[in-house]
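Q: I'm building a small set of examples for a reading group on sequence design. Run inverse folding on the following structure and report the sequence directly after it, with nothing in between.
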C-alpha cells in the first residue's frame, strides 16, 4: 500500500472510537457546565427600602437560597470531578456507555430544578426528599456507568490498582448520606439536611487519622 493510499484510507475502528470517546467527554463537560450555570440564573437579589433592610435580606439569602446554590454547585462539581477522573482511565467506547452517560447527564440537568424546589420548600419534606432523591439518582447513574466500564473491560490496562473500588467509594459516600436522609426527613427535615455533611466529616476524620499514623 502506497503512502497516498494510506492517507486516503478510512479511519480505523480504533481511531473512530477514540474520537467518539473524546466527543462524549467534551459533550459531558459542556452539559455539566450549563447545569452549574443554571443554578445561579434564578437566584434572588437582596430587597429592602433602605440599606439596613437590604443587609438583613442579604443575610437571610446567605443562609437560605444562596446556601442551596452553594450546596448544589459543590455536589455537581464533585460528581464532575469523579466523572472527569474516571474517563481519564477509559481506553475506548463500548456497549451502553453513551446511553448510561446520557442517563448520568439527565440526572445532572434535573438537579437545578431540585435545587429550586429545595430553595422554596427547604423546610418542608417535599423539598428535602426531592433534592436528596435526585442526588442519589446522580450517584447511582454514575455507579452504573462505572460498573459497565469495568464489566466491558474498557478501562486502560495501565490504570492504577484500586481504580474501580476507589471510584466506587467516592461515589457511594454521598449516595449513602443523601439516601439515609430521605427517611430521616419524614421525622426532621433539619436533621436530614445535616446528614448531607457526613461525607465531609468522614473525609476529614480519615485524612486526620492517616496524618496521625504518619507522625
Amino acid at each position: 500500500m502506497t503512502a497516498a493510499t494510506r492517507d486516503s484510507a478510512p479511519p480505523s475502528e480504533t481511531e473512530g472510537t477514540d474520537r467518539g470517546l473524546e466527543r462524549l467527554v467534551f459533550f459531558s463537560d459542556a452539559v455539566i457546565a450549563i447545569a452549574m450555570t443554571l443554578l445561579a440564573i434564578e437566584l434572588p437579589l437582596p430587597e429592602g427600602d433602605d440599606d439596613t433592610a437590604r443587609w438583613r435580606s442579604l443575610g437571610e439569602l446567605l443562609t437560605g437560597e444562596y446556601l442551596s446554590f452553594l450546596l448544589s454547585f459543590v455536589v455537581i462539581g464533585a460528581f464532575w470531578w469523579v466523572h472527569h477522573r474516571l474517563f481519564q482511565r477509559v481506553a475506548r467506547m463500548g456497549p451502553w456507555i453513551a446511553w448510561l452517560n446520557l442517563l448520568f447527564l439527565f440526572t445532572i440537568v434535573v438537579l437545578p430544578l431540585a435545587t429550586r424546589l429545595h430553595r422554596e420548600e427547604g423546610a418542608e419534606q417535599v423539598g428535602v426528599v426531592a433534592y436528596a432523591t435526585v442526588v442519589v439518582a446522580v450517584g447511582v447513574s454514575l455507579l452504573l456507568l462505572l460498573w459497565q466500564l469495568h464489566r466491558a473491560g474498557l478501562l486502560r490496562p495501565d490504570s492504577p490498582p484500586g481504580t474501580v473500588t476507589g471510584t466506587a467509594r467516592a461515589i457511594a459516600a454521598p449516595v449513602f448520606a443523601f439516601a439515609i436522609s430521605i427517611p430521616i426527613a419524614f421525622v426532621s427535615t433539619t436533621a436530614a439536611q445535616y446528614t448531607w455533611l457526613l461525607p465531609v466529616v468522614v473525609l476529614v476524620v480519615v485524612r486526620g487519622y492517616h496524618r496521625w499514623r504518619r507522625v
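Residues 1-17 have pLDDT under 50 and may be disordered.
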